[in-house]
Automatic annotation (TrEMBL):
Annotated organism of origin: Streptomyces evansiae
PANTHER family in the cross-refs: BLL4564 PROTEIN (PTHR43698:SF1), RIBD C-TERMINAL DOMAIN CONTAINING PROTEIN (PTHR43698)
Protein's UniProt name: Cupin domain-containing protein
Domain Cupin type-2 residue range list: 42-105
Pfam families in alphabetical order: Cupin_2 (PF07883)
């Protein structure tokens, strides 16, 4: 499937070159809303995923909200099993949680992403997801 053939309700956006160093594979970014709670549509080509990372914040800030809108992907918090994300899946990542998210190996994936506002909100990018561990995750449709 090509980017032009990936059916989703939000724009694909541009290649996410500004953050490419924190992704394995190609992602796309489409900012949808700005202001105190910026919202973006993030799309991932098959096999694309971001590095482990931690969102931080105080006074209620720093939680990340992921809303899957198209395709099929994964979310995983450190020390936990990976969670399959399908359209309609909503994940709340509490501030301070080391995690990653991205497409399944054989599926495009898109989610809306935003961070709850507060004080001292930041993001810390960490190491890539291990290729071997990622490769052991089920493919779309195979117990995924």
């Amino acid at each position: 499937m090509t980017a032009s053939g990936f059916d989703q309700i939000f724009p694909l956006g541009e290649k996410n070159d500004a953050f490419a160093q924190y992704f394995t594979g190609q992602s796309y970014l489409a900012p949808l809303a700005s202001g105190s709670v910026p919202v973006s549509n993030v799309s991932f080509e098959p096999g694309c995923r971001n590095n482990w990372h931690i969102h931080r914040g105080t006074s209620g800030g720093g939680d990340q909200i992921l809303l899957c809108t198209a395709g099929s992907g994964w979310y995983q918090a450190e020390g936990e099993e990976a969670v399959s994300m399908e359209p309609g899946t909503v994940i709340r990542v509490p501030a301070g949680t080391k995690h990653w998210h991205g497409a399944k190996a054989d599926s495009w994936f898109s989610h809306l992403a935003f961070i709850t506002p507060g004080e001292n909100v930041s993001n810390e990018w960490l190491e890539p997801v291990d290729d071997e561990a990622y490769g052991q995750l089920p493919k779309n449709g195979a117990n995924a």
